[in-house]
Amino acid sequence: MNIIPNFRGFFWLILIAFLFTWFGLVVFPWLELGHLPPIQEEGSTDITPWDSSGAAHAGEHIYAANGCAYCHTQQVRPETSGADIIRGWGTAKDEDGKDVTRRTYPRDYIWQGQVFLGNSREGADLSNVAQRFPDAAKLYSYLYDPYVLNDHSAMPEYRFLFVTQKISGQPSQDALVLPAADAPPAGYEIVPTAQAKSLVAYLLSLKKGYHLKPDEAGIPYVPPSPNNS
Amino acid sequence: MATLFPTTVAPRGFVSTDPELAAVDASVRWPVMVCFLSAVHWMVVGTFLLVYASSLTHPQDAFPILGWFVDLSDNFSMFTYGRVWPAAIDALVYGWASTAGLGLAVWLLARTSRAPACSPATLMTAVVFWNLGVAIGLTGIFLGDSTGVELLEFPAYASWILWLAYALFALWSVATYLGRRPGYDHIAQAWVLVALFAFPWLYGAGSILLSTSHPLPGSGVIQEVINAWYVHGIYTLWLAPLGLGLLYYLIPKISGISIRFGTKAKIAFWTWIIFAPWTAVHDFVGGPFPAETVTIGLILSGLIFIPVALIGMNLVSTAFTAEEKQGHHGGVVFPFFVLASVLFVVAGISEQILSIRSANELLRFTMFRECNQLLWIYGFFSFTVFGAIYYIVPRLLDFGWRSAALIKIHYYLSLYGILLVISILGFGGVMQGNILENTDVQVTIVTANDVSISYHIAATMCISLIAIGNGVFALHLGWMLIDWLRLRVRGNRLAAEILIEPYEGDAPAKASEEVAA
């Protein structure tokens, strides 16, 4: 069983074996997908995908630090591979307010500082979460107490992203509207912290309602089907 | 260090009778012991965190006592699931498995090369810094500095400590190997060297390319590609080779039977190195990735049935033959290695299942992936390390384990714990997948949650079983060390003890005599 007749030769063989995987799994996809530009129509200032705001980018860190990606994915597989489209996770509104339903493509992620495709669906896919939670207030109360909106939710409560403070003068605009069980004592209100605000800004930026071009980087582009729109 | 406690103690007969092996063991005694002790410490920490994280995945009705866990997790950012879960897995992978793996690597290289380790003090320093890196990294995760990148959650300020400590350790281990006497070759060396080469590449490339403070410009989904390459590389090119190296060395050594189908071991080695890392594409199927990479990757990762079958033929059949020929041979350590080899094949089969496209589509986002992860960490690798610690520590300290019964209790708790956990999470994954991939539009994520919750509750119970087993193991090790110290310092008379494997010709057949000071 002498597998290493010569250390140097063994080292080179190992190196070649590693390089084979490295090129196939990292370098080749990088060459193909690493520098996808956004699409700009001629004579138009519109850029697809839409870029998100600075607050949304700050929210990526909150999303990472609190491990949202361990239960939530951000990828919609095509109809041929899984039931993501049927679950409604691929649907978002386009510029004209019409529903677009499609899978996600590599180009969808080019503006994201950190990409969270995720590997577990204990929770729903968040590729187009802004479609289901169009306003911040609903997201705040969901983060504070998921049971208010969904009494089967498996999501933890993120109360540490909020503070209870005494109302002085006018009540705060962001103050949470909660059912009696969760409501703060009279004269107090529950408001989101800066972390909660940037996390929610990030979640609200997650919508992929724009149209992409045919043949996205080796993945044939299937135009949104009219049935779903 | 051996003369730290200057009491003359009569040799107790646990040290190898081969003077060369005894010298090797003496040279690595403290680095390996420090590796094992800190590894067991992280095992306890990681297992506790895992039970905690698992108890947060379902309502607490089943465990009313744990209700306050949830209150903690709701109100304090430190204890939220998204921090506890990665901290648990990182404590287990970097603290427990990798630290023990470093100990295994240096012991195996020195032993198989019959070359005493050069500069044990350097190795010790490296282990201390490695542990420091793990501790800082875990603290960083709890304080909210987690990068959110799977298995690379440690913030940058911990990563570089780990990398440097590792580099120091690996260079000295390889130097030991290069100083070997010609003619001492063993396939275990190949496995260990592969692991030692793979880790710095994986960890260096992973933590630099995926650094969240300086993200790659315009990289997009490539981040997730690199992350998948990293995660699966850690299991298949770092932990698996270390464990396999040990099994290839100790199974024949303990049983006295040479590896069956030994000529296939070489093919198994090379096919594993080439095909196994392609299991990374299991995380790509259906995702926003080039279709051809996924297709080719699924074919290549499917080919791991070749090395898995060959390694199974080598290890499992040697182990079973040994049990058959020698009956149950009275050993309490050998069953750990038998089970480790079997669980390697099971882990290989679970990777094989994920290489089938339709199965992957069903199981991708379910708890099956957790099952696969725990199979590698708690199944195959932990059992290898348990056996290794039971076998190696008496030879390093010249001191026996205190109780065969405790070893058996640990064995059965871990055995039933891991078998139940993987069956529950594996089957639960199929049930969860059936709902997630249901084509009925009425079905929602809520339907899937209602089904998966019962499996999560069962999993928490079974992980608690493993945790109890691990606790027994840690306490037993502590008991042994205290008695060893009492012997060294005070020269106490000690009660009967056992050495569990009377094989390899360098161990006493019976070592239960009392020793006077």
Structure in words:
The complex is a heterodimer of chains A (229) and B (517). The longest helix of chain A has 27 residues, at 7-33. Chain A has 5 helices and 6 strands; from the N terminus they run αββαββααββα. Chain A is globular, with a radius of gyration of 23 Å. With 229 residues, chain A is an alpha+beta fold. In chain A, a hairpin with a 5-residue loop joins strand 3 (91-93) and strand 4. In chain A, the strands form 3 sheets. Chain A has a two-stranded antiparallel ribbon. In chain A, strands 3-4 form a two-stranded antiparallel sheet. Chain B has one domain (19-490): Cytochrome C Oxidase, Chain A, CATH 1.20.210. Chain B is globular and about 75 Å long. The chains are: A alpha+beta (229), B mainly alpha (517). At the A-B interface, helix 1 and helix 2 of A face helix 2, helix 3, helix 6, helix 7 and helix 8 of B.
Describe the secondary structure blueprint for this structure.
The complex is a heterodimer of chains A (229) and B (517).
Chain A: H1 7-33, E1 39-40, E2 47-48, H2 54-65, E3 91-93, E4 99-101, H3 129-132, H4 136-144, E5 162-166, E6 188-192, H5 194-204
Chain B: H1 19-55, H2 67-75, H3 81-113, H4 120-142, H5 156-178, H6 187-209, H7 222-255, H8 265-275, H9 291-302, H10 305-325, H11 334-354, H12 357-363, H13 368-397, H14 404-436, H15 445-490
Q: Which whole number gives the mean pLDDT of chain B?
A: 87
User: Architecture of chain A, CATH level 2?
Assistant: Orthogonal Bundle
Task: Please provide the ordered H/E string of secondary-structure elements of chain B.
Answer: HHHHHHHHHHHHHHH
In total, how many domains does the architecture of chain B comprise? 1
Helix proportion of chain B: over 70%
Instruction: Tell me the structural class of chain B.
Output: mainly alpha
Count of all domains of chain A: 1
Largest interface: chains, residues each: A-B, 81 and 97 residues
What level of helicity do the residues of chain A show?
A: 25-40%
How far the N terminus sits from the C terminus of chain A, by CA atoms, comes to 64 Å
What's the CATH first level of chain B? Mainly Alpha
Strand content of chain A: 5-15%
Counting DSSP E segments of at least 2 residues, the number of strands of chain A comes to 6
Q: What shape does the CA trace of chain B take? A: globular
Strand order of the largest sheet of chain A: 1-2
List the secondary-structure elements of chain A in sequence, H or E. Answer: HEEHEEHHEEH
